[in-house]
Amino acid sequence: xxxxxxxxxxxxxxxxxxxxxxxxxxxxxxxxxxxxxxxxxxxxxxxxxxxxxxxxxxxxxxxxxxxxxxxxxxxxxxxxxxxxxxxxxxxxxxxxxxxxxxxxxxxxxxxxxxxxxxxxxxxxxxxxxxxxxxxxxxxxxxxxxxxxxxxxxxxxxxxxxxxxxxxxxxxxxxxxxxxxxxxxxxxxxxxxxxxxxxxxxxxxxxxxxxxxxxxxxxxxxxxxxxxxxxxxxxxxxxxxxxxxxxxxxxxxxxxxxxxxxxxxxxxxxxxxxxxxxxxxxxxxxxxxxxxxxxxxxxxxxxxxxxxxxxxxxxxxxxxxxxxxxxxxxxxxxxxxxxxxxxxxxxxxxxxxxxxxxxxxxxxxxxxxxxxxxxxxxxxxxxxxxxxxxxxxxxxxxxxxxxxxxxxxxxxxxxxxxxxxxxxxxxxx
Length: 428
Hints:
428 residues, two-stranded antiparallel ribbon, 13 helices, alpha+beta, eight-stranded mixed sheet, 12 strands
């Protein structure tokens, strides 16, 4: 079984060795000593990647950070006490002992080694060769995914996507919890116990509570996402939808990286991401992802996105520790995949952000028109005066515009042609 998805060709290669005696495929080189490397190619045992590049995930010969030898036992390298503690923590978290090699796990689950390897790779786990390092839970997970395919509920490709999306999301969550949560709680105490000695009982206490909370939040998010899909007008709109998409970007972040200490920079980024996430959620948007000095958000309607963009500017401007911010928002058809958004609308929002003046929100023409259509802003001051005059004559109510729009100079944008940005502000 292999590390995270490598983006291989149309047919994803087997990484873990098959115990079938089949001849190697064309292009495979014979191993120098009969062993397989962790990246799926063959070479001398213990050797690095052929291209000398770094490999993501745990090192070859490790499972969840604990080393294992070729027979499935504890590795001889490093501090044996550390390996013992790592294995004890693994057993506590997984709730089971190591019993299976990848081949045995695949066979017990009733799936092919190739499919088991694809699932394992998609979940983001490193190659472990054929050591005895998997548990009954790994067998059950393989059996469940394969069962969904056999029942016709998911195609094989969709099952791999389920594994990949779940693996990527929970990997980041686990890293965050260990780095930011457990690290703070496991500082050496006055009792004289080391961080390692504190970690085991702490994990033992936290594990069931964190697991219950994770399931609760996932169900809540699943309910919200399902509701948005049900409200779609047709099947095509479920995938290609009209959304408002916005980027918020810290100005001068590169200069800050040279001036601030690493800890200070980390605190600034965390404060920015936390503030942005809270504002986006509070006003009805969805945070798509964070990119350190930039966040990407989406909203179902232009009015919600406009409120979020301006709130971000106003909130950051009142924080002296934060640099200036700029926001770009576009409205149009967006393709959604695995929780992310793609398409021309997203690219346009990104370009608008890059040309926006400090502490301002720039929107595209489609966004401006949508705000006018839903009555949140006049497309021009002439329209606003005409609506006010009509209200005075009794022809209708006085419009209560929340936002104002000011057309800016048209300009060419790389890859998107000539665009007309509009400056968004609150209406006095």
